Amino acid sequence: MHHLIKEKLPPHLAIIMDGNGRWAEKRSLDRVEGHRQGAESVRRIVRASREIGISHLTLFAFSSENWSRPRLEVDALMLLLRNYLETELQEMLENHIRLMAIGDLARLPQEVQTALQESVKKTAQGRGMTLTLALSYGGRDDILQAVRRIMSHGRDGNLKPEEIQEELFSKYLWSRDLPDPDLLIRTSGEMRISNFFLWQLAYTEIYFTPTLWPDFTREEFIQALLSYQNRERRFGLTSEQVRVGDG
Ligand code: IPE
Ligand code: IPE
Ligand code: MG
Q: 15 CA distance to ligand 3 centroid (A)?
């Protein structure tokens, strides 16, 4: 039993799933075994999010920097990703989950791109929850690709400098279809953003936990959501202003 308030759930929850390698190293296992257990955690948390009623769940699964890891680890991660997409499609359809992917997807192996496209297409009607995988994603890459497209629209005469407001800029980011995250969870004890959403996290609440991603349970997930529900989001205002606004 938990005491989450349905109306106060974070509409968009993002997670930096970190600590798979350390989980495996602690057990003298290969890092890849940690990623395999990490995929189980993904299944568990996606299921819990859907049940609890989260609208948008975004998982940082592979960063633009992760390409520089040893070739064998990158290959294993790509294989796990493909496997995840193939095994989860049916459950996503049954639970009305819409899958999306953001990042420099053209860098992914062709088979992964194909599997992604297929799952994205088949789940497009899902209205239960949007699950977004950030793959080959970098926050700086995201901002730069937005700036490049804005400049080319400017050159074509379709956009004037004064039109470039926050809302418009957001529409050029890979996350254009998502609201800004309300809550960010990062596992593994690292207290950094690691080039995840840079623009999008401007007013996101952050929950850091030392738990390694394969050990992240449904119970702790609920703890994180409860912590979020107990915070006062002030957006630069005074506490009094916020409370008057609430009432
Ligand atoms: C997160 O776990 C998974 C990815 C970054 C792909 P790590 O592999 O970074 O695990 P640690 O940080 O080395 O423990
Ligand atoms: C962040 O984890 C990226 C993902 C979880 C996909 P990293 O393990 O790559 O982050 P750093 O390098 O420790 O900052
Ligand atoms: Mg890590």
A: 13
Domains of the chain plus CATH, in order, are 8-138+181-231 (3.40.1180.10)
Which residues are registered as beta bridge partners of 159?
none
Which helix (H) or strand (E) segment holds residue 227: the answer is helix 218-229
Q: For the chain, list the strands marked E by DSSP.
A: 12-16, 56-63, 97-102, 129-137, 183-186, 205-208
| 83 assigned to active site | no
- The catalytic residue among 18, 20, 142, 182 is 18
- Enter the tokens of residue 1: 């039993």
Instruction: Decide: pTM greater than 0.90.
Output: yes
Pairwise CA distance, residues 132 & 99, whole Å: 6
Q: Which of 33, 22, 61 is nearest to 45 (CA)?
A: 61
Q: Answer whether residue 2 shows pLDDT above 80.
A: no
